[in-house]
Amino acid sequence: FGFRHSDGILPHEPSSTGNAGDQSLLLWLGLSVLIGGQTFQADGRAVISLTNAIMGGAAGVVAWAACNRVILRIPIERNIWLGSLCGTGAMAAAAGLVLPQSAMVIGGVSAILCNLVSEKFIGEKPVHRGKLVAATLGISSAVGLVLTGVFATNSVAGNRWDGREVGGLIQGNGSQVVIQMVAVAVTVLWSLLMSRVILFVFQPSNFVPVDRSPVNTEQ
To answer: Within a domain: residue 11?
Structure first.
């Protein structure tokens, strides 16, 4: 939307923080609708799922800004658009299983953790926004999966396939947190393994000639 201009992050790829905010807003809304539809039923649970996705994303923005100001002591607007993605990404797993107030906690915690990790390993280094988004969604999804084991509520989630109630740590089922952590660990290991396999099998040089010679950037 609008004219793009360089913001000093990537001189070779003009962009603007405002445009990134518009794009993240569209992605936030799109993911919220998608999450709401994942329940495959038009009832109160679908409404709660959609509400949780929106509330989680909103809490992520506020928490990211607060982390910038209070903890990191940096400009409040730095990468604030990632906050909505943190909250929404965390709610992808939890939306249909928790209450709205829990969704706000999950979105806020996810945004703070992602912000701290981002500043620790990236800081002001020139990093492509696509990589920022991928890393943010990965971390926030893992956080959301684990916190689902904490805040899952039977009044929203209902019962399992075998008739047992779905509940998390707040309902006395601490084993659900362990189950969620194991699921995250297995998913990470599987993703790393399959990524290596895919990159090995489908190397770009096998299909398209790639010139690996250094590029003269001083021309």
So the answer is: no
Between helix 129-151 and helix 100-121 the angle, nearest 10°, is 140
- The reply to whether 6 falls in a domain is no
Contacts (Cβ under 8 Å, ≥6 apart) of 121: none
If one counts the domains in the chain, the total is 1
CB 63 within 8 A of CB 3: no
Give the residue, 32 or 98, on which the prediction is more confident: 98
On whether residue 140 sits in a domain, the answer given is yes
Q: Which residue has the higher pLDDT, 170 or 204?
A: 170
Longest Cα–Cα distance of the chain, Å, equals 69
Measure the CA–CA gap between 219 and 139, rounded to whole angstroms: 39
Q: What is the CATH number of the domain that holds 32?
A: 1.10.3430.10
Domain span at residue 174 reads 17-202
Note the pLDDT of residue 151. 93
The pLDDT of residue 2 is above 50: no
Residues 6 or more apart in contact with residue 34 via CB below 8 angstroms: none
Average per-residue pLDDT for the chain = 79
Listed residue (4, 19, 21, 126) closest to 65, CA to CA: 21
Q: What is the reported pTM?
A: 0.74
For residues 138 and 129, give the distance between their C-alpha atoms in angstroms, rounded to a whole number: 14
| Residue 45 within a domain | yes
pLDDT recorded at residue 45: 76
* CA–CA separation, 132 and 82 (whole Å): 8
